[in-house]
Amino acid sequence: MTWRERIPGWLWLLAAILLARLLLMAMLPLADTSEPRYAEIARLMAETGDWITPWFEPGVPFWGKPPFAFWISALSFRLLGYSDFAARLPAWLATLATLWLLYRLALGWFGARAARLAVLIHASSLLPFLAAGAVLTDAYLTLAVTLSLVAFAKLPDDPHPLWKFGFFGGLALGLLAKGPLAPVLVLAVSIPWTLWHRLASGYARRLPWCGGILFLFTLTLPWYALAEWKTPGFLDYFLVGEHFHRFIDAGWQGDRYGSAHQRIYGGIWLDWLLASFPWGLVALWQLLRWKVAGGRVRTSWRRSADPRTTFLILWAVVTPLFFTLSGNILWTYVQPSLPALAILLAARLAARTDLPANKRHWSALVALVPVIGLMLGGAVAADPGLVKTEKALIEYYAAHAQSGQPLYYLGSRPFSARYYSHGQAGLQSAGTLSELLDQYPAGAYLAVEHAQLQSLDGLTRSPVLFKSRRYSLVFGKGPRHGQWSSTRLDAQP
Fold first, then answer.
1. Are strands 466-467 and 471-476 parallel, antiparallel or unpaired?
2. Is 428 found in the same domain as 360?
3. Are residues 414 and 370 in the same domain?
4. Which residues span the domain enclosing 396?
């Protein structure tokens, strides 16, 4: 038997999924707005060495998120250099850790077959697959919630220090990655579950409360205190604004760094269906097949009342239930609930006797999202103009600009322009354009939104050198240096 034959098929599938995501991480540019915004904050952190305050831009602190995602991406920049892959790699590693945790829980509760299926289901679901290679906070929040809840669930059978302190370690990671939302989601599962099954006293004795709380505070309080000391007003904005006003006010106008994400109440359940694709649809189909009529009523009730099942059901529904009450949401908010869905569905499928006969069908479902991702990734790699990114425009400018020829964006400057130019792309209003150009005898490059190109005096006489999805790149000189230049530098449509 060769080494390839010794590796089981499910591991080959998992490796293919993870490698597909690694490939896409290297292929795809950072597209506006969230990914390049967070990557730029991490780049500034790595460049300045300021590990306390994330900076939205020089002089403007970013109070919207705690620093863990920026810490880990900045560290990756320091170790691997500045690249899209380095910015995204930590989220991939966090997803890998989440997969290991849900495998351990599913293995202990439902056996090896269910554990393997759970890992494949979660890794190939739409949102976990995307978040595994994205410069966002969701992969870290999911890891934090999963660590706390898996540790909580495994503690009665395995008093290993990893599980004893993992509960508090997950809370600490959540507080540093997302904020108070993490403890809310964890406690909203663990407390009702222990009360429902009358297990509160047992867990109260097993958890190392004094050492665990000290561990939690030691990891989190110093940064929160230093952040408020260094930039006063952080705690009020972050705790009150981001976690109270944003939740209750769908049209909250206090966002310093963007705008509210106003949605209909209850829209999070549609997000859950999209985020879990294709497995959410499979779960709904299995639910319809779970007949409870006649003599199966008692059996079905006993299954649903099993502590393992109720724990996973609570875990799967608490997050969407929580955000049902908010109209200011993003579809990524459902991700912490998806590991529980993967285990529930895997346990159901593993109990089916006809699963081996349909192996090809299930393998096709596992491969669906990664294959679609690779196809779309190939299309974007061939034509970056399909997504909102300034990477190609910045690269064109860097390849053609001479000394003393800066780049300015007129009116607005995307985050991807800031990130890919390492903060060198400037921002200028159209009204003072002539004065700006007079400062540069060698001329300057200007990125102008396509719709505004014809409305700017004199700019129509400057050839378009490069086009991104939103911006046209032109080159010009001020009135004192020969008006607009008509020189075309290797023009590209």
1. antiparallel
2. no
3. no
4. 391-481
pLDDT tens column, 424-454: 999 988 777 777 888 888 888 999 998 887 7
**How many C-beta atoms surround the C-beta of residue 215 within 10 A?**
18
Q: Of the residues 355, 380, 405, which one is the last residue of a structural domain?
A: 380
- In angstroms, what CA-CA distances link 104 with 93, 112, 117, 165? 17, 9, 12, 16
- Buried (b) or exposed (e) across 282-309, using 16+ Cβ within 10 A? bbeeeeeeeeeeeeeeeeeeebeeeebb
Residue 1 lies in a domain: no
Q: What is the mean pLDDT of residues 57-64?
A: 89
Dihedral pair phi/psi, residue 225, rounded to 5°: -70, -45
Q: Tell me 108's DSSP state.
A: H
pLDDT at position 470 is 94
Asked if 144 and 171 count as a contact pair (C-beta separation under 8 A), the reply is yes
Overall pTM > 0.85: yes
Locate tokens 């009523």: which residue? 297
Residue 353 and residue 239 share a domain:
yes
Q: For 163, phi and psi rounded to 5 degrees? A: -80, -35
Task: List, for residues 92-109, the tens digit of each pLDDT value.
Answer: 999 999 999 999 999 999
High-pLDDT (> 90) share of the chain, %: 60
